[in-house]
């Protein structure tokens, strides 16, 4: 198993066996979350394997290379699922059924199995069998229409919202919820995790706050969508940026004071017509000092002004260092520490490098009840593959 510290034995998901069918982005994050919190996650990679895994979120996982399309491949997965608690399946609607590996088959073999189906459009509906990516799921959810500056096209913030938040995180929440329910019923169930619905659910506040006047104006002219001069980013003299979130009057007052301005000589904070002019004024002031100089002014205040940190800077920032918010693995690769923090059974992420495809094939199959003879037969039939890492890797 991946190397962890002594505290790993007390993790919240210890003993939970997860099979993650290899996929892109959201599925690997879902599996990594479960692994970080103690689950034994086996990534079932495709065989014949490609040279490099597309999964950069393989922390704490082991890899088994299996060709589900060969005779014996699907049967091997059925056997694995008999001893598993969770299956994470990222394929388009109908793929698993065509392989004879649909929920009706696997839940009959193991009624306690949590069968998590993580897809963009879900298991039903017009687009269920269609290809798509984060930007498509974001657009269909309605959320994309809210993202973007005034007089510009809507834009997707990387692929964070639909893929990872609406997909990977909410699927992990669904799995943990189903595992908890199983402690009462003793039965597994199917999770239909749609990224469209996941990101729509994340936007519940937008839906339920429509009567509050927060979103009445066109995109890019509202309080939280880059319309307000006190909820915006500003460039500093050294080409860096500061983020301002001074919404409440008492915070806004401290913000204005930090800029060296007098609020009595300025328009009312919520005077929409003055917002464009106020932005220009604030921008000209921020451009006069470096990011570090602005930090020295606004740190230790409640002005809600913070530096926009690059990946290079974020690890060394005092607050993040004090909380050990970032970790380094055996390969000196830095990544965020698992969140949230649990006081008694915290996540203890593996510090070992991510697995190579097929690195643990034999080890996992033996653990799941296959004999050495059966493993040899699967290998000769090209159903499975092994990959022993070279010593210099």
TrEMBL record:
GO terms for molecular function: alpha-methylacyl-CoA racemase activity. Gene3D superfamilies: Crotonobetainyl-coa:carnitine coa-transferase, domain 1 (3.40.50.10540), formyl-coa transferase, domain 3 (3.30.1540.10). It is an enzyme of class 5 (isomerase). Its EC number is 5.1.99.4. GO terms for biological process: bile acid metabolic process. It catalyses: a (2S)-2-methylacyl-CoA = a (2R)-2-methylacyl-CoA; (25R)-3alpha,7alpha,12alpha-trihydroxy-5beta-cholestan-26-oyl-CoA = (25S)-3alpha,7alpha,12alpha-trihydroxy-5beta-cholestan-26-oyl-CoA; (2R,6)-dimethylheptanoyl-CoA = (2S,6)-dimethylheptanoyl-CoA. Signal peptide: none annotated. Keywords: Isomerase. PANTHER family: ALPHA-METHYLACYL-COA RACEMASE, SUCCINYL-COA--D-CITRAMALATE COA-TRANSFERASE. InterPro entries: CoA-transferase_III, CoA-Trfase_fam_III, CoA-Trfase_III_dom3_sf, CoA-Trfase_III_dom_1_sf. Pfam families: CoA_transf_3 (PF02515). Catalyzes the interconversion of (R)- and (S)-stereoisomers of alpha-methyl-branched-chain fatty acyl-CoA esters. Acts only on coenzyme A thioesters, not on free fatty acids, and accepts as substrates a wide range of alpha-methylacyl-CoAs, including pristanoyl-CoA, trihydroxycoprostanoyl-CoA (an intermediate in bile acid synthesis), and arylpropionic acids like the anti-inflammatory drug ibuprofen (2-(4-isobutylphenyl)propionic acid) but neither 3-methyl-branched nor linear-chain acyl-CoAs. One of its GO terms (cellular component) is mitochondrion. Belongs to the CoA-transferase III family. This is Alpha-methylacyl-CoA racemase. Pathway: Lipid metabolism; bile acid biosynthesis. SUPFAM superfamilies: CoA-transferase family III (CaiB/BaiF).
